[in-house]
Amino acid sequence: MNISRRQTLQAAAVAALGGALSGRGTPDRGSASPGADAVPAAARPGGGWRLPDEAHPHEATYLSWPGRRVWGPDTTGVRADIAHLARTIAEFEPVRLLAGDRDTKAARLACGSGVEIVPVPVDDLWMRDTGPVFVLGPDGIAGVDLNFNGWGDKQEHGRDRRVARAVLADERIPRIKAPLISEGGAVEGDGRGTLMVAESSVVNDNRNPGKSREDLERELKELFGATKVIWVRGVKGKDITDYHIDALARFSAPGVVVLSTPAKNAPRTVFTPAYEQAREVLEQAVDARGKRLEVVELPEPDDFGRHGEDFLACYVNYYVANGAVIMPRFGDRKADRNAAAVLREQYPGREIVPVPVDHIGEGGGGIHCSTQQLPTVDRRSP
Question: Can you give the pTM of this predicted structure?
Fold first, then answer.
């Protein structure tokens, strides 16, 4: 009898998720084994793996279907945003969207036949943080499981903490269990050995108690094949992520950083000093090759309507797909056009596709936060 990919995944997901499908949990700190985690034998940090840049070709993009328990009365709107995003990305590369059994029918109807619905229980939509971070190396590909803990136990995550395992089980990709707790949105890489990280979200007792920045830098380098980590200060306790780097600064190419900056007339907030400190650090920083960084400003919108205090009005939280850059559209026509122009210059040859994501933004995240790329294995990669 032929076993479909979906049947294989469903069995693997059940094994991987085990008894953690209800209630709050803490990361499994035990050893990784194929039997326990339903994934191939664990790879090790420091095994020649490297974090590719986001512009590296993708085999697919993963997204996650938001649950009613988290989103409540806002569920309909945010699901519409995710479905629109999934359909948009599917024009450029395959899309796999995770959804619990009760939600697969609704997700399939909303996303259409061009999006594969993968039956894995989830709590929320933030695939960048709950999914594995894929790394490439001489042995092909592996996935780093960053032990998602609900951004420092701020949100229920009984299902989401097991998402990385389920994805890796489906793809039959070795799992690297990180020696630290973090999220994919906390780490930005240039694909050439340089990482950017906000200290506030990683050097934080709600994730890594007792570990110093030096300890965590060493572990990050081993996990992602980096030789240089550029730290910015960030802001603790003012948003659910403790200020992820992917809402502040992104590598558009080795040696080039796109930095989110406040709109010209924006009032000062608790985040303004973080922008200023990041700019100062990045303008003085050199990358793994010893090259001084070029910093490109990407101003935030000035007029984006009435939204909650957690709304993420940030263009830099864009996603690089095969042949395209998917960017948020906020309705500030001048700012939207300017952001598209900046990204067009930074990503020549790619189509710039603006997508409205106001409901996603109300949750404090954006397009990049909602996606996770599965890179194509390039046997010629160093």
Answer: 0.89
Number of domains making up the chain: 1
Cβ(353)–Cβ(328) below 8 Å: no
- pLDDT on residue 306: 67
Q: Report yes or no: 168 and 143 within 8 Å, Cβ to Cβ.
A: yes
Integer Cα distance of 39 and 248 in angstroms: 34
In a domain, 13, yes or no: no
- Domain extent, residue 102, equals 48-375
CATH of the domain at 326: 3.75.10.10
Pick the closest to residue 29 from 223, 186, 208 (CA basis).
Answer: 208
Q: Does residue 11 sit in helix, strand or coil?
A: helix
Residue 40 in domain: no
pLDDT given at position 44 = 82
Does 257 reside within a domain?
A: yes
**DSSP output for 116-166:** EEEE---S-S-HHHHSPEEEEETTEEEEEE----HHHHTS--TTGGGHHHH
pLDDT at 3: 31
- Tokens, residue 182: 């973090």
Rounded Cα distance, 289 and 54, in Å: 19
DSSP label of 22:
S
Residues 94-111 have pLDDT tens digits of: 999 999 999 999 999 999
For the chain, report the end-to-end CA distance as a whole number of angstroms.
40
Known active-site residue 369: yes
SS3 95: strand
CB 53 within 8 A of CB 251: yes
**Is residue 316 a part of any domain in this protein?**
yes
Of 369, 370, 373, 374, the catalytic one is 369
- Residues 132, 246: Cα–Cα separation, whole Å: 16
Identify the H or E element spanning 382: none
Burial of 178 (0-12, 13-18, 19+ CB in 10 A): buried
Residues of the chain with pLDDT under 50: 1-37, 380-382
Partnered with residue 324 across adjacent β-strands are 321, 351
